[in-house]
Design a protein that fits this description.
Blueprint: H1 4-11, H2 16-36, H3 41-66, H4 73-97, H5 103-121
Helix pairs in contact: 1-2, 1-3, 2-3, 4-5
Length: about 130
Amino acid sequence: MFHPNPLFQAMGGMPDQAKSLLHMVGAVGVALGIEYDRSGVFTFLVPGVVGVLLLLASWISKCSSDRDCYPGFKYACCFFLPGVAVLCGGLFCFLFLERESNYQFVHSAWQISMAVAILFLLPQSPGDQV
């Protein structure tokens, strides 16, 4: 199952110890949330919002310390915005369109949209700076 929180943390450029701690807290928190309510809106909304806030805080910190905009405009327009759009579309399908009668189709579309969002959102290798 895809969970956005670790993905956003990986993009944020946080220290390794903080990333490891937040990955474990996020994984346990999502597991508990899914066990409590498998298809609840807050099960996915809360980790996603926390991940986005961590990402934005990391970017703001990097921008203020380096006095340079991070990430670049090209990355934001060509990768980040389309990735977030695909992610939101997939979550919308999963949370609001999935029913017992169409489960296999909508759930497959959700899984595909999460995979495409990962392709957009994962950071590039250090040699391929955008």
